[in-house]
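Notes from hallway chat w/ T.B., transcribed later so I don't forget. T.B. wanted the structure written out for a chain they're using in a teaching module, and asked if we could keep both sequence and structure tokens in one place. Agreed to drop them here.
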Amino acid sequence: MWRWTVSPEAAPETGEYLDLEFEKGDLVAINGERMKAHELLAKLNAVGGKHGVGRLDLVENRYVGMKARGCYETPGGTILLKAHRAIESVTLDRETAHLKDDLMPRYASIIYNGYWWSPERLALQALIDQTQQTVNGCVRVKLYKGNVIVVSRDSATDSLFDPTIATFEDDEGAYNQKDAHGFIRLNALRLRIAENARIKRR
């Protein structure tokens, strides 16, 4: 059944590292070599398959109502997804990332059901394209025995990660511990109101 991937047990004993470069959310280079989109995917398929990456065995819900078992090989797609999520983690702000996560299952369903040219897919595409404007940078992954392991991710132009802020030590004044008290009280207001109402109903 499996044609593109070796089993993880038969994969090389030594892992392989890849540096993946992204521009506006699109993969543009592997290990510094720029290629066309289909060439990049072919390269990822080949190297991923060699390391047993990307086997998927699932029972899916078909659009017509039946359940069907599917066995898929997606070595290139698996590597690309892991790396893309990694670069997004440092270049997308929280709410944009959460919105995109909420929409992606719907977007995938639209495509799976054959509505590529539908107005809803085009509308979602415009939103997704907008979120990708700052998704620029490089991700290093290690392929080993069926796994894609993110080793590092960095964006020289669009990283939102600031080590001077992301600390509980000296954050150069970015975070005041006293602010937490009011934040917690406000955030828990609805819970306190519900608890008071429950007590009154006793």
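Follow-up for T.B.: The longest strand covers residues 16-23. Might be a good example for the class.
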